[in-house]
Each structure stands twice: as C-alpha cells, then as structure tokens.
Amino acid sequence: MSFAVHDEALRASLRRSFLARSDGVTESAKLGPIVDELKEASYSLLLELVAEWKLENVTIHRLPEEVLALCFALLPFRDRVSASHVSCNWRRISLSYPAIWAHIELGDSLINNTALFKMALGRSGNHPIDIVHGLTFDTDGVIEDSVMTHIHHIRTISYSTTPRPALLSQAAPMLEVLHGSGEHLHIASDFLGGQVGRLRSLHAQIGSFAARCPALGTLTDIAIHVPATAQGAEHFRHLFRFCPVLEVLVLLRLPIALAPFIPTGPAPASLRSVMMESCDAGFDLTAHCAAWQLASRSDITIFQNATAGEDLALIISGALSIDVRHISNSPTSVITALGPGSRRRVIEEHDDPHSLAAVMQRVRSTLADVQALSVPATSLPAFMDVFAVLPELKHLTINLHDDRTAAQSHISWLPWNLLTPLARLPGLRPGLQTLILNVVWRGPQDPPSRRDALDLTAHLRRLMHVGLPPILVKGFAAETLHNLPVPEFPGFLVHFVDQGLFPPACPVLSTVTSLSLDGPSSAESAPTFRHLFRLFSALQSLTLCHLLSQYSQFLPDGPVPASLRRLVLESEHNHYDLSEHYAHWHSQNLSDVGICQFTGPTRHVSQFLSGAVELIIRREHPFGPWKSLIAVCPEGRRRALDFHDAGYDMQRLAETVSSVQTALSDVRSINISAVALSDFVPVIAVLPKLTHLTVTVKPDDNSRDGRNFRWHDLASLAHLPASRPELQSIAIKVVCGKESCTPNASDARALFLHLEAVEPSGLPDIMVKGFPPESVLGIEISQLDGFKVAFETNCGSVNRGIEASTDGVAAPASDLEPMLLSLAHGVTDASQISDTYQELGSAAARILCDLVQKWSIGNDSSRCFPDEVLAAIFDVVPVRDRLVVSHVCRRWRSVALAHPAIWADIYELPRCKDGLALVLMALSRTGKYPVQLSLSTDCDGAPELLSALKNHMDHIEQLSWGPGCESMPLTTPAPLLSEIQGVSLDVPSDFLGGQVSTLTKIYMVQFYLPATCPALSTVTSLELHGPLSEDAAENYDKLFTLFPRLEYLRISLLHGDLADTLPTGPAPRTLQDLYLEGIEYDDYDLMQHYTAWKTDDNLQNVTFAQDCCEIADLGALIGGAVKLVIGEEDDTNRTQIAASGCDGWSRAIGFQDLEDGHAAYVAEMIFDVRESLPDLHTLEIEAAYLAAFLPLCDSWPKLTHLALSVLPAIGDEPAYDWAPLRCLSHVRQHSQSIVAIVIDVKMGPPSADDARTMLAHLSLCDVADILIKGFSNAVIANVETPDDFLTGLGIRFARDEDTHSNMDAGTLPDSGWDDDAPV
Predict the structure, then answer these.
(1) Interhelix angle for 142-150 vs 113-123, to 10°?
(2) What residues contact 193, with CB distance under 8 A and at least 6 apart?
(3) Strands 299-305 and 321-326, how do they pair?
(4) Which residue, among 106, 964, 97, 910, has the nearest Cα to 490 in the 3D structure?
C-alpha cells in the first residue's frame, strides 16, 4: 500500500504533539529537546513494531547452515571457540565447516594457546589456513608437529621464533606468505620441499642461501636482513635469478664487506619498489641501484652512511619536486624527489651542502622538469648556482631551523643573515613565482617570538629593492602575529601565514565576557596575570591552557568575578594539581568547570564533588591512562576533572572517592566505565540515595580490529543486589569511536550471553543503548528470570513503556501503529519491512523540520535587539562581512549607516577587485569618528582616494600605506593623527598643516627630512633606515632639532660614508632608547655617534650592531658598569660586549670576530678600559676567554662573581674542551675578591665522563663556592663522587629542578647577578 495516503494523518498527529509541547516556548534553543523527544517516541514505537514483526516472521533457525558458518568465520578466534559451545546445532555447524577455522590468531591473552591451536588445525580439514600474530614454537614441539602435519594446506605463517629446518624442508604447495622475526633462516636447496609452489611474500633474517632454490621462483615481495658472513652470502648475488618475478625488494643492514655479493643487474622487469639500508661508512648503494637499471621504477628508498656520487641522478632524474633536508647536528642529508605521477625517490646520505649542490649541477640535465625545490637556509649559499640550472623552477622553499639549546630559549635564535644570498635570486631564476620562508622550531614550548618576526622584517628591508617574488612566511603562531606591523617593500610582497601581556589598567577589557588564552610562558609575562580578574571584571567564561607549574604563584588569588560561569584549566606538567586554583577561586556561580592535568586528584576532591547528584567515572586510552571524574550538580552545574597519571589507578581513585562519601550524600546516579566497575562496587555501596547506574562499555584497545568489546567487565554487576538493593535501573551504554567497529548483532548476542552469567542475581531491569536499529531488530531476546533486558537503539527504545512523554502528552502512537500494520500487511521479506520503517521515520523527521522552521519564522528574536547591540555585533566582524550585513535588510542597513564606529578600522581587502571602492565606501560612513586606515593600493594612480583622504584627515588616527603612495595628502591638518607607517615619505615643511600635532610614532623605510617642520616636534618614537645617498641624507644633521621630544630611535642599515650627515651635537634629554645598525662589510664605528650624542641624563639603553671591530672609546660606553657580559651575538661569528649599571642602564655593542686570536683581542679591548670599571662585581665570559681575561681580574677589587659558559666543539661528535678550566687553579694569583664561580655547560647533554674530567680540573681551584649547571640528575648520580669531597672543594651541581634558580641568596650580591642573562 502506498505511504502517501498516510502522510496527512501523520503530519496532523505530529503537529498536535509539537504544538502541545512548544506552547509557551520563546527561545529556539529549547526546541531541540522537544523535537528529540518526539523523534525518540516515534522511532521507539516504529522499532518495537518492526521488532515484533520480525520475531513473528524471521528466526535464526531459518538461516541456512552455510550463512551461519559464514557468520562464525567473521568472528575473532576467541568468539569462534565460544560459538562452538553455545548449542548442539551451532557446535555441529562449527565442526562441519572447516572454513570457520581458516584464520588462526591466538594472541597473548588466551589460556591454553597450544591446545587451542592444535584444536583449530584439527577442525580445518584441508581448507587453506592463515596463521598470524607471531606464532611461537614451543620447546616441546607440539605446535611445530601440528604445523608439520597440516603444512600441505597452510597459506600463511607468521612466526616470532624460527622453526627447525625439518619443518621448512617439507613441501608446502599452498604456502603464500612466510613472515618471521626470529633468528637467522637458512634457505636450503630443499626449502619448502625444493619445489615451485605459491610462495609470494618472504620477510625474515636470512642466514644463508643455497646455490639453487626453486621455491623462491614465485616470490614477488621479499624483505630480508642479508646474511652476515661472506660464506652465508656466497649465493646472495643470484637473488634476481632466484626471484625472476620480484616486485618489492627490501634489503636491510647491508655491510660493505658483502658488497661483492650484492646481486648484479639488471633487476627483473617486474620490480617496482626498492628499499636498501646500510650503516657502514663509505658504502654508496646508489651505484648498485644504477647497475640494476632502476630508472623507470616508481619507488626507491636508500639509507646510507656515504656520499652519493654521479649516481644520485638515478634518484632525482625527471622529478617535479625535490626536498633537501639536513639532519640537525649531523652531516646527513635527506633528498626526496617526487613525480612525475606517483613516483617517489628518497635517499638519506652522508654529505655536506656544497658537495650535494656540486653533484646536482653536474647532473643538471636530469633536473629539467623540477618545478618546486625546498632547501635549508644553511645550504642557501651552496644552492644558489643550482637554482640557475633549473629552467622550470617556479616555487622555492627555504627552511629555517631552531638550533638553540633549552638554555638559549630566551634569545633571538633564527639565523636571518642566512637569507642574504636571496639578493642574487632574481638574476639567477627570474621566473620564480613564490618564495616560502618556513620557520621550524623545536616544539610547542619554544615557538618563534614576535621579536623574531620583527627581526625578519628588519632583515628583509635589506632586500627591499630586489625584485623578489611574493614571500610567504610560515611557522609563526597566530597570537604572535596579532597586530604585527608588516611593512610594504618596493621590490616584493611579504605575507605572514597564520597570523598577551596584560597592562596594569585597561577599561576596554572590563566588558570582555569570554577569554581563552595560554597561561604565562615567561618570567616577564607571568606577573601581569595577577590582575586577570581585576581587568576582566565582567568575565563569564575563562579558559587557561598550557599552564606551567613554575608560574602558578602568578595566577590571581581570587575571588573570581561574580559573573564567571565557565572555567577551564589545562596543564601538561607532572604533579601540578590545578584543583588548588579551583579551591581558591570557588564560587557558587560557577556552573561549568573543566580541569585537565597530569596528576591525580589530591586534597580538594571533597570540595570538587560536593553537592553532586550524578557522578561520572571514565577511563580512556587513546593516548595513555587518562581518567575522568565528573560531578553533575543541580541546575545543570557540572565539574569535570580529567587527569593522566600512570601511578594513580582506578582502585586508588575509588578509594579517594570513597573517603569523601559525606560529600556524595545526594548522588542519585552514577555513570561509570565498565573497566572501573569492579573497583567502584564499594563506592556504590556507600551512596545512600543512589538509584540509577549507567555502565559504559568500549572495545578492547588491544584488539586487532577494534571490535572486541569487554563484556566480561560486566561480571561485577552480580555484586550490586547485595551492596545496593535500592538500585532501580541499570543502563549499559555501548560506545565505539570508529564507524568500522559499530556494534552488530553478534555483539548483541555476546552481551546477552554475558548477562545470562550474572543470573539469578535480582538485578533491576537493564536497558542496553548504543546499538543501531538493524543490529537488534532481527535477533531473538528471551527474558531472564532475575531481571529484564531491553535494547534501545540510536533512534529510540524497543520498550513501548516510553511511548508517553513525561509531561503526559501522548506520542503519535495511534497514527503510527495502524500505518505500519497497514503497510506491512502481506510482507514476508525483512528488507521490505526495514524500508517501510525508514520511510515512516524519514517522514516524521521531515514533518518535524517543517514545524520547527515555521516556528522560527514566527518567533525571530533578533527583531528585539536594540540598535546599539546590533552595531556592537557588526563592529567585531571583518570588513568584508560589515559590508555584507549592511545589505541584509533595511533595518540592518540603517544601523550600519547610523553608527560610524562600525567603520573605524579600515583596511584594503587583499585579492579583491573592488577593494579601492570598498575602502572609499567605508571611509564615507565614518562621519567624524577616529579611524585607523591601512592602504596597499597604488594611491598615486587613484586620485579619488587621495581626494577622499584629504577630506577625512581631520579624524584619521592611524595611517599606513604601501609602495606607490608618495602623493599622500599629508599637508592637510590632522589633529587626531598619532601614528604613520609607510615605505617612503618626503616630509614637506608644511607637513600636517605646518602645525604642532598629536603625532607620536613614525615607522618608515626611506625618510626625507625638511629643514623645519613643527608637526614633527611631538614625535617620541622614530624607526627608519639610514639614507642611501647624500641627497637623501639632507637635513639629517637636524634630526634632533626636528624631533626634540624623541624617546626611542632606531636607525638600521647605516652607511659609513654618510656618517657625517647625522647630528653632531647632543641628543635630546628625553632620548633613552637607541639602536644603530651598520651595513655588512663596512668599517663603520658607530661609537662616534654615542660620544657625540651622550649627555648625563640620556641614552640609558643603547645597542650597536656593526662589522667594525676597532671600537673607539669603548670606556665611554661601558664605563661604570657593575656587570659585564661578553659572548656571542645572534651570529656565531659575531661578539657582543654588554654592560649594565647599578641604576638600571644597559649598553651593548656587537662586532665581527677576528679569524685568529679573537679572545686575546677582546681581552686587550677590556684591558684598555679597565680603569673605567672600578665597581665591576660580575663578569660573564666563555670558558675559552678565561686565560686571556684572568690577568685582568686584579684590576677590579670589587669583582666577586665569575660566570663561565662551556660550549662543545662543532663536529661529527660534539665534544667539550675542559682544558681552559685549568686556569681556575690560578684564580687567587689574580684576584682575592672572587667568592663565587658559576660554570654553565651549554648545548648538552654532557656525560658523566665530562663531569669527572671537569672536576679533575676544578680540584685545584680554591674558590669557596662553585656552582655547576647543565648536567642532568642521572649524570650527576653516575659521577659517584662523595658528597663530602665536593663540599670540601666548595663545588655544587645544580639539579634539574634548580636549573633556573640562582646560587644561594647568601652568596650573591643584591644587584648585578642575573642567572638568566645570555652568557
């Protein structure tokens, strides 16, 4: 019968039910439960009716035996054995169909493996058998004898212990796969009976090959460890003759001594995939691949400890994409060549960038098709000439890697200077389309910083006139790039892909209601978190991630804002209990609390669980032993604790919960993982109001297919009637995260059988959830004597008792039942009744969707939003979306036009053909509201934009522009303008109307100055590049006259031949921060400007960066310092001298290293100015400088602290040179004032032998306090030096937990010693 005649009746019934339930509802969010309730009621009835029909018309007994046998064959081995003991009929079928036992996987969890294995083989008849999961041959030979008996029909053998030769000498006509991980397998001439069979895959450790072996003639896949001796490898050279149809070849641990025995070419034509590996130095495997003539093969992988020669062409020939990587701290390169098609070639070899680049140039004829190339930044100079020989190269990726140690994480680390060779790129490869700078750091704890991003843009300024392709910068976190000023360069575009410290006060933050951020990550940012709750006084939701225990004291003490409802805390630190913060912040208003940590609950469990009416206990295993403890309280309040603690098992958690039973007096429901049920039975017994229990069952994580559900964990249900007789209901919820392991009918039957084992126990009725409808509708479920079991599917329950909802409004049962009965009349095919069920269910869902849509149209709540609320919402959407919402409807358009604040932040949309028109439209809507405007269009070619800017300059607050905007209307008065950024600016004398303005910040690449300009007199921050010519430098000598209030000045890329164009007189008294940088390869001493500009009360913080190492009047820069730090700058070939004074000033100068005698040269520089350092009490240098600096110590009578950094020599195996520490035995000959020495070992880890060698050198040093840092606790423990010996020498090792701590407070001066400063 057609369903169409029933549609109107069903619609009318559902409409009545929907209107009855939605009466009085005013929020659309509340419709969800109503619709779900109607769906569940409808589906529940349909499921029950279908189940009743199937019980009357389909039974398991009507299935043919062949179908049952096929079902049994799909079960895991354990369940097949169980099925053979269910009934006489099932046992007869199990014994009559050998195919059921064709797949044998014993596993380690089965008892009596040997007996079960022998039983399964006995039931297999002559059917092909697959033995998997690493068969272990027992010592008494039972398993081996069984295999030998059935070897004639075994198809697969996977073993973990090598069988005796007698077994493998038997004929095995059906054997196709032989995989093993045991001892060496000797391939004799009688291997597998000496006959050609079906063997196609062999994975093993080979001990020897016979001269002939017919059984190998059918192999297509071979993965072997080659024979270890020449005698065993004698016939290995004939491998291709043994295996003429080989397709996949894997050769592991190839020794160079056996090179003469490696097969000679050509390889079989069928060979398509090759992998070779050798750890022997100098063994080039590419030569063998070339001899095998593998040029057309699609997959080649080589791992070798040798340099590939001309045969590298075999790997890279014809590739479309090549990726070159260098393994850190190792002379190893990995070259990956992809294309054409699916071809993939990989080689890991031992070489250096220059030799690799030279080889690639010699074989350039094979690289004609390369379109994409990726190389490390360290290899860029070597590969510049390679770029020139790649005619089709379109995309170039430069990878910049983090090579810092953990102790260097606070310094700027990326070697941006390695990008200097890019200046040659346009001439070598003019057709390049994209250039990607990929920044790769060590891990999430040490990402590149905002300073790194600014340093990158500063380095790119050096290339700004080079015609580079667009540059994409990857690797910076989004929060790092937020509001990052990215200048426009005339030669190319730069785009950061993927684009909080808190101030003491900020009224804007007081309206924030939702906040999600990482916890403090540095000592500088941590203290500002104390003000979190004061700054965000209206907070409703707070999420703090990646919290670090060392900064826990900086989190706010509380109380939390009264408005806070949701709190989420997360930490990955061991032994950091976040519930401490919850206890301090506890508020009755908190309705949703989530804590995720790596330690078990401790002291605050009672407060966390107090008032709960439902308790949820979980144990998850996706990434380790995660456990969850969730308390659900009245009025929807919820508190969840997730923790990962291997030492905190479920039994201990149960004991912890049981110890706070008074806090659980109101618990009425428990939801618990089945694996934890047995441990929590005592907890269930002490909960006086508990009436409902839900047990969650998941698959065993160790099962092969993820479908082995742990039904046996339900056995503990038998203890519940005695411990909790008041229990009213039990639900078993089956959960599986993957579609491939959805529970099926077999799982339903297995569950029912396990519940039978609990009987008779007087349990309450059990509802089983989580099974799809098709898995339970066709099975027979008999009721148990002690309790009833019902299955509820994902669509609803088969129990007709839930046909009425809780509010008494009947579900549409009176309409659905006659419809289904009418449609099912005369149907005998179960598939037809399922289609009918789906048709009725889909119709009900469709009708409910129509009803909800009509309700939404009549109850649009956005109409009641005030205009101000809508305007505030529009204000936070992107510019493009602001334009969209202004065209949605008349009211939204009127709001968008009536509130100028919506358009206060204007930027030109990238890749938008109407971007200029949209900017003009947005600008016209701003009224007189302060505007921040950013332009990238060529303004000189857009007169309408220039005209609009002139009309709006009176309320523009910030203005930035790109290249081609030299005609900006900046002679117009701009009373609100505070900041300008651009590429080039020629300042006229009537700049900003020739009046004193509010301008405070200027960031410009090229800056041309007038003789006079009143508008510049208010600027406090100025950043620019040095002039490029004398014409461009005109009036630079008047810089301080034009900018009398300057506080911060940064001039980059200064040319020495234009030094006389800068001011010669003193700088303004307000100028406190100065940064000057010279160009490379220029003997330009920047100190001349310091001596000319310095007064008594300016230039507190000074940094110079130059190549010139002849520094005039160094004493003027560092004189009066109490702390002196001498070490590497950001480049390994540069040295920085940094000084700081007791009143907080800091000054530094960096210069180029000398090739020879650099330490002595630096010491001589300091010797010449030693008398200007009478108050010096702290000296930090590298250990290599010690011999040169020690004689200077007697010049400083107040010197009390000496810090030495020890770095390893760079090489194949980095090693430490401890010899410089011998000089410490002469400390007292040069200084009687030194009381403490710190030796900081960098770039570890140093070994115990290093510690012993170092102590031997320190044994003669008579300084009373020596602190050694950089050794791990494990290494210190292995030194085996008596504590009294170290105490007698005054030597202490800093433990891991003290890595960031200073020396004892009593041994340090009050000022000057900064343990975290770079050494």
Answers:
(1) 10
(2) 169, 170, 171, 172, 215
(3) unpaired
(4) 964
Contact yes or no for 1179/1191 (Cβ under 8 A): no
The whole-angstrom separation of Cα 549 and Cα 536 is 23
Give the Å distances, CA to CA, from 1154 to 1109, 1160, 1162, 1169.
Answer: 8, 10, 10, 20
Distances 18 to 800, 802, 812, 819, 820 between C-alpha atoms, Å: 20, 17, 10, 20, 21
C-alpha 745/C-alpha 600 separation (Å) is 39
For the record, the structure tokens of 971 come out as: 């002679």
Which has the closest alpha carbon to 218: 202, 235, 238, 237?
202
**1206, 1219 contact by CB (below 8 A):** no
Residue 73 burial class via C-beta count within 10 angstroms: exposed 0-12, middle 13-18, buried 19 and up: middle
Beta carbons within 8 Å of 110's beta carbon, 6+ residues apart: 77, 78, 116
How many angstroms separate the CA atoms of 643 and 622, rounded? 13
Residue pair 409/443 in contact (Cβ under 8 Å)? The answer is no
How many other C-beta atoms lie within 10 A of the C-beta of residue 589? 12
DSSP-derived secondary structure for 317-374: TT-SEEEEEE-TTSSEEEEEEE-STT-EEEEEEE--HHHHHHHHHHTGGGGTT--EEE
Pairing of strands 1134-1140, 1021-1025: unpaired
Give per-residue pLDDT as tens, 49-99: 776 666 666 556 567 888 888 888 888 888 888 888 877 888 899 899 999
Distance of CA 193 to the CA centre of its chain: 54
pTM of the entire structure? Answer: 0.41
Q: Are 466 and 492 in contact (CB under 8 A)?
A: yes
Q: How far apart are CA 89 and CA 92, in angstroms?
A: 5
Q: Give the per-residue pLDDT at 411.
A: 56
Count the Cβ atoms, other than its own, within 10 Å of residue 122. Answer: 14
Helices and strands in the chain, H and E counts: 40, 48
DSSP state for residue 603 in the 8-state scheme: T
Instruction: State residue 446's pLDDT score.
Output: 65
Coarse DSSP helix, strand, coil percentages of the chain, rounded to the nearest 5 percent = 40, 20, 40
Contact 1000, 979 (CB under 8 A): yes
- For residue range 302-326, list pLDDT tens digits in order: 999 888 888 888 788 888 999 998 8
Q: Measuring CA to CA, which residue among 121, 84, 87 is closest to residue 101?
A: 121
CB 1063 within 8 A of CB 1036: yes
Listing DSSP states for 1263-1297 in one string gives -SEEEEES--HHHHHHH---HHHHHHHTEEEPPGG
DSSP string for 393-436: --EEEEEEE----GGGTTS----GGGGGGGGGHHHH-TT--EEE
Torsion of CA 751, 753, 757, 759, to 10 degrees: 90
For CA atoms 527, 531, 536, 541, the dihedral sign is: positive
How much of the chain, in percent, has pLDDT values that exceed 70?
83
Express each pLDDT in 205-230 by its tens digit.
887 888 889 999 999 999 888 887 88
Q: Which residues contact 849 (CB under 8 A, 6 or more apart)?
A: none
* DSSP-assigned letters across all residues of 692-722: EEEEEE-B-TTSSSS--B-GGGGGGGGGHHH
- Computed over every residue of the chain, the mean pLDDT equals 81
Residues in the chain: 1319
Query: Could you tell me the CA-to-CA distances from 83 to 73, 147, 353, 1042, 1048 in Å, in that order?
Result: 10, 24, 64, 95, 83
**Tokens representing 1116?**
């003027």
Q: Tell me how far apart the terminal alpha carbons of the chain are, to the nearest angstrom.
A: 88
Only one residue has tokens 């008596």, namely 1282
Q: Count of alpha carbons within 13 Å of 248, Cβ hemisphere only?
A: 9
Query: What tokens does 543 get?
Result: 């999420």
The two tokens of residue 341 are 């098609």
